[in-house]
Specification:
The chain is built from two helices and 14 strands. The protein is mostly beta strands and 293 residues long. It is flat and about 70 Å long.
Length: 293
């Protein structure tokens, strides 16, 4: 966590010290998708009124500070809910969360002219609302911090597409605030630390024309040590933390008009500590979008 703060501070200091360097490459867009359905009280068939909405935002800030230092920061935000009426009482139920993501990453890449570039990065992942405990909903929880350093390579860099990869050592910290201890019925903050090696592949391209964009990001992580190892000794899941983690995100966005966008999101996750099988997520939306830059 301290290393993450140091990396973020270094980016800000470097950027402020290079105000006359190349201009920032900026991209900030936001979209809102809304689906609504209503039925009369005497409607036959069991259908109920629903309202679903989803907010998505993707931001990119990149700058070649000088000939030897490049900084790149990305921020992904997403949140959505579904509201349903009760079939019997026709009263609105409490909303259900359908999407929730906070993901910020910043990278310092040292462009020294070699075959590969050294890099250092910091990443923060969380969600807006933790509803895992309905009696104790928490804001921006849990928090995962990742600090990484190693080598990076830009495999492809053209006007309309870019592909880069990174390989390095990484340290992660997971902070779960006010987690309920079922045996003692107490709330406590749980910290978990681990370290290992991380591989990242980041690809983005336009499809056909500039109104369609496809991006694919793959994270692979293998832990070599974990602070939870002693607590898990002797349990059935004592070695689950040793299994590699994978996170593969794919986003296809297409502008129908200037302010209407179609977005397809596919994600495949594998984390043996969470579930023995892989997890799959897909969202498809058509909504309003606005580009700030």
């Amino acid at each position: 966590m301290k290393l993450t703060i140091c990396i973020l501070t270094a980016v800000v200091v470097a950027a402020c010290g290079a105000a006359r360097a190349e201009p920032w490459k900026r991209s900030v867009d936001a979209s809102l998708t809304l689906t609504q359905g209503a039925y009369s009280d005497n409607w036959v068939g069991g259908e109920v009124a629903t309202i679903s909405w989803m907010f998505n935002s993707n931001s990119l800030f990149e700058k070649q500070i000088n000939a030897k230092v490049n900084t790149k920061s990305t921020l992904k935000l997403s949140f959505g809910q579904q509201h349903n009426k009760d079939r019997d009482t026709r009263e609105w139920r409490d909303p259900l969360k359908v999407n929730d993501l906070i993901d910020f990453e910043t990278i310092l890449r040292f462009t020294l002219g070699g075959f590969v570039d050294p890099y250092a990065s910091g990443r923060v992942e969380s969600q807006f609302l933790d509803a895992s405990d309905l009696e104790n909903e928490r804001i921006v929880n849990p928090l995962r911090f990742t600090e990484s350093a190693g080598i990076a390579k830009v495999l492809l860099k053209e006007e309309r597409r870019e592909w880069s990869v990174r390989l390095g050592g990484a340290f992660r910290q997971l902070v779960d605030r006010d987690r309920r201890d079922q045996e003692a019925d107490l709330l406590e903050t749980k910290w978990t630390n681990d370290g290992g090696v991380q591989f990242v592949s980041d690809f983005v391209t336009t499809v056909g024309d500039t109104t369609r964009t496809f991006s694919s990001k793959l994270y692979l992580y293998k832990a070599f040590f974990s602070s939870a190892a002693d607590d898990l000794a002797g349990l059935a899941n004592e070695n689950h933390w040793r299994a590699p983690d994978a996170n593969w995100e794919n986003i296809l966005s297409a502008s129908v008009t200037k302010h209407i966008v179609f977005v397809l999101y596919l994600q495949i996750l594998y984390d043996k500590e969470v579930d023995l099988a892989g997890r799959f997520k897909e969202t498809l939306g058509l909504g309003f979008t606005y580009k700030l830059f």
